[in-house]
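Incident review: delayed structure delivery

Summary: a single-chain prediction request sat in the queue longer than the usual turnaround. Root cause was a stuck worker, restarted by the on-call engineer. No data loss occurred. The affected request and its eventual output are reproduced below so the record is complete for anyone auditing the incident later.

Affected input:
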Amino acid sequence: MKYNKKNILIIAAHPDDEVLGCGGSIAKWVNKGHNIFSLIMAEGATSRDNERNQNSRRKDLKHLKKCAEQSGKLLGVKSVSLIDFPDNRMDSIDFLDVIKPIEKIIKKLNKK
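Output delivered after worker restart:
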């Protein structure tokens, strides 16, 4: 069966969710020649603390970003974008503020 090459955007809440949630599908789509892009919405570490303090988690956040990029590369993902929303606090963000960065990525991908 022949497939048309597509741009596919994976949207995940936290680093590693994209791999654990649909890593097998990502690998399958890459093998079929599709372009896969990953968008991770929340930073993935500050919910472990009573208050969000990115400075105290700087090392963890840097490590999470590096791991997300490495796992994406291993799977054949074209790019991994991380948005800096607060971990496990997405309900505290206005919905429009969540949608805008997603729309920006989609517009960029539609130009490819």
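Verification: The chain has a mean pLDDT of 87.
Action items: add queue-age alerting; document worker restart procedure.
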